[in-house]
């Protein structure tokens, strides 16, 4: 059976996610261009769930001997950061939370603050250098993303940690399970349960 364009993009995007550490959105766009499709109708673009399925299949086929250890190391980095800013209600999201991360993946933490400056003050108090960026938030507005570097002894390299600063009220929506029963993020006790189970 010949794969559809959507399936081809999902498979090509999954390779980029695993081999280059790309995020899903940019990986899908780059995959479409690599397949010679510079303009793809939104209906032809695969959903993130389809890309995630392809990522899991790719990891099982090509990275089964290395990925579990790399994921454990990244989750350990995430746990260290989640222990530090407890008043900021940190929640782990992205590939490290969903279990598809490799050593090329960044750690994505969501901080649910009453005051958006709390996170920056916290990093300044720790003496941790950081870069400030932004991305669209859950309500379409721009939100701050603080990026830090964190060494991982297990990986023998530095891991990028993105701290997305969100409003405390956004937390309720983030914990709703998707169609597969998985939430978009989890707190430190939930992460520790995942680490214990693996």
List the main descriptive attributes of the protein structure presented here.
single chain, 198 residues, alpha+beta, Beta Polymerase, domain 2, 2 domains, six-stranded mixed sheet, 6 strands
Question: How would you describe this protein?
Answer:
The chain is of the alpha+beta class and 198 residues long. It folds into two domains: 5-62, no CATH class; 67-197, Beta Polymerase, domain 2 (2-Layer Sandwich). 44% of the residues lie in helices and 21% in strands. It contains eight helices and six strands. A six-stranded mixed beta sheet has the order 3-4-5-2-1-6. Strand 3 and strand 4 form a beta hairpin. Helix 1 crosses helix 2 (24-34) and helix 1 crosses helix 3. The termini are far apart. The mean pLDDT is 92.
What is the distance, rounded to the nearest whole angstrom, between the alpha carbons of the first and last residues?
A: 36 Å
Please, what is the CATH homologous superfamily of the largest domain? Beta Polymerase, domain 2
Query: Judging from the principal axes of the Cα atoms, what is the shape?
Result: globular
Mean pLDDT: 92
């Amino acid at each position: 059976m010949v794969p559809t364009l959507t399936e081809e993009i999902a498979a090509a995007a999954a390779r980029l996610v695993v081999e280059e550490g790309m995020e899903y959105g940019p990986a899908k766009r780059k995959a479409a261009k690599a397949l010679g499709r510079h303009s793809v109708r939104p209906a032809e673009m695969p959903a993130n769930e389809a890309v995630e399925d392809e990522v899991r299949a790719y990891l099982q086929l090509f990275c089964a001997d290395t990925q579990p250890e790399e994921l454990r190391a990244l989750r350990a980095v995430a746990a260290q950061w989640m222990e530090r800013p407890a008043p900021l209600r940190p929640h782990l999201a992205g590939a490290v939370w969903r279990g598809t991360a490799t050593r090329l993946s960044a750690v994505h933490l969501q901080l649910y603050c009453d005051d958006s400056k709390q996170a920056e003050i916290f990093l300044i108090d720790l003496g941790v250098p950081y870069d400030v960026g932004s991305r669209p938030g859950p309500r379409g507005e721009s939100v701050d993303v603080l990026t830090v570097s964190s060494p991982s002894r297990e990986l023998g390299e530095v891991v990028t940690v993105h701290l997305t600063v969100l409003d405390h009220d956004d937390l309720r929506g983030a914990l709703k399970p998707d169609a597969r029963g998985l939430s978009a993020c989890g707190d430190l006790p939930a992460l520790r349960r995942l680490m214990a189970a693996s």
